[in-house]
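Below sits the subject:
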Amino acid sequence: MSSTFGVFLMLTNYFHDLGVAIFFTTSLYFYFIFKNISQNTSKELLENLTKLQRYFNKIFLISFFWILIAGIPRFYFFKTFEWNPMLEKSQVPALIAKHLLLFFLTFLSFILYFKTRSKLKKFFYK
């Protein structure tokens, strides 16, 4: 395997982790911004929030699809590029903890995002 491909794969792994972070922060921002919408919210603010929701949807979906796409080579080369080096350094528990955290953040992102989205649908589409 060439060193160029190794660098490409390493960068893909890092950007995959970054995609999870963007995925999580987008859903977290989405949740906190729309958490306190009430019937007393002005029409102008609701229109701006609707525009903001569209941007959040795009960022959320782009980061989700990036996680899926970048996850393919990461999964395929996991043993070579992540497991074996960590095994040599006796860092397998840290690798397991990292991936559990990534799975947890991804799962939590879906919960926050769809919980907020269902609230918005009830509020905007009565």
